Amino acid sequence: MDVKLLEKVREITKGIVIYDIVITVLSVVVSLFSKQLFLGLIFGSLIAILSFRLSAIKIDRTFGGGSSKKPQLLILSGFGTRMAIYAIVLVASARAPHLNVFGTALGLTSTQFVILTKNLFIDKIKERRSKA
Questions:
Q1: For residue 64, how many C-alpha atoms fall within 13 Å in the half-sphere facing its CB?
Q2: Average of pLDDT values for 110-132?
Q3: pLDDT digits (tens, 9 = 90+) for 57-101
Q4: Cβ neighbour number for residue 30 with a 10 Å cutoff
Q5: Average pLDDT, integer, range 15-26
Q6: What 3-state class would DSSP assign to 64?
Q7: How many helical (H) and strand (E) elements, i.e. helices and strands, does the chain have?
Q8: Backbone dihedral region of 33: left (phi > 0), alpha (psi from -120 to 50 degrees) or beta?
Q9: How many CA atoms lie within 13 A of 8 on its CB side?
Q10: Which pTM was predicted?
Q11: Which of 24, 53, 85, 95 shows the smallest number of beta carbons within 10 Å?
């Protein structure tokens, strides 16, 4: 995998860990913490990290010259696969008594939340500091 892409994947993975810590602390503060919520959050986050890493590998292969297929087809098939995995994970979480489906959903959305937070706030703060 490309070094720059690998660094971005590691950065997002660290952000997901921080996200999990923040959600756990917030759930304790508002008295919503439960073992099932925590396990669901961890389960969803692990699946989100795995899915993000697989997406990065697919992007690297698609645009790095490792594939002769149309890039649009590969990206679309990857998206469909991820959505199917997310559906299976949510159904499994809903059926498992030791997992909270809401916690799992929070974990599954962690990647999007971390990327949005990074792009909207953290990069803007770094940009302002570098100009000052």
A1: 12
A2: 84
A3: 888 887 776 555 677 777 778 888 899 999 999 999 999 999 999
A4: 8
A5: 96
A6: coil
A7: 6, 0
A8: beta
A9: 16
A10: 0.85
A11: 95
- The one-letter code for the residue type at 92 is A
- Tracing tokens 């959903």 back to the chain, one arrives at 105
**Single-letter amino acid code for the residue at 93:** S
Which stretches within 64-118 are classed as H helix? Answer: 71-95, 101-108, 110-117
Q: Which residue has the tokens 């996200």?
A: 19
Place of tokens 């916690």: 103
Measured distance CA(111)–CA(108) in Å, rounded: 7
Angle (CA) 19 31 21, round 5°: 15
Place of tokens 């697919």: 58
For tokens 């099932």, name the residue.
36
Question: Sign (positive/negative) of CA torsion 90, 96, 102, 103?
Answer: negative
